[in-house]
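Input sequence (345 aa), recorded before submission:
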Amino acid sequence: MSVSALEPQPSPVAGNARPIVQIEGLKMHFPIYAGILRRQVGTIKAVDGVSFEVMRGETLGLVGESGCGKSTIGRALLRLYDPTAGRILIDGEDIVPMRGEQLRQVRPRMQMVFQDPHASLNPRMTVGSIISEPLQVHGALGQQEKNEKVEALLEAVGLNPRFTNRYPHEFSGGQRQRIGIARALALNPEFIVCDEPIAALDVSIQAQVVNLLEELQERLGLSYLFISHDLSMVRHIADRVAVMYLGKMVEMTTRETLYSNPKHPYTKALLSAVPIPNPEIEATREHIVLKGDLPSPANPPAGCNFCTRCPIATDLCHAEEPEWREIEPGHRVACHYPDQEFGRG
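Predicted structure, token format:
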């Protein structure tokens, strides 16, 4: 069975504006319990009213510092968490109310590549068993067909098909992540959440995995939500980029616009921390250093979430939450003063 046995999805059409995933007002709140009676004493607002979409065939990069809610969005989107509020539409169908068999029928269309390739693979299962497990749960293939599909998947991700009887500990970190990608592809999904898929890998291996993801996207017509801390890698792989801060979206636009003309103060601070390979330019750049600590998602500030660390915050920012609005075609920002310049260098 050759690589062509993988079922390609329709290739994305240039200028196609159809979203495959739409998130509307998504909230993920986790209760805090304390005391002998385990009473609820507070709520962690991990994701607090987020709205965005992923277009068919595109890669949407999702960036932000640790604890801002990126991975929580990815897990809620795949219904690994039950959202507190909001809607998650896959091709226009809301999957939040779905339960049991109805949800099980939708799951093959959306899969996940996890951050840690060491923890996400069962050490007691062979590679063949790991990759074929989704086929057993969702498919009706015979044993011979499953074996052929597993070999085709291994070949598709650049591994030897004869590795099916080996165990995860026999592979390097990069090879394990390829196995995780093969497992995600087993059910011919349309949409994949990549939850920091290169964060646990050596730098020399990261580019190989990202190039593999791009190659598979082009061949199979996949759509990605690519979650990452690495702004340089996001610039390489993403078509559009969304920036999160403390459970909320603060900016979203095309890759070119975000890196050349960011509007939100937090986005500007993030980009100023990315080093430029030219030492002469790097030596003259102004780096924006944010003051103060990241507020707790259990007790976010009033008004704008970023107001306690923002260099241009005013009384309005401390009193009123900014609207998530479109300031230019395809460019959305949650800021009262998106046109105020500061710290550009």
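Checked by second reader. DSSP finds eleven helices and twelve strands in the chain.
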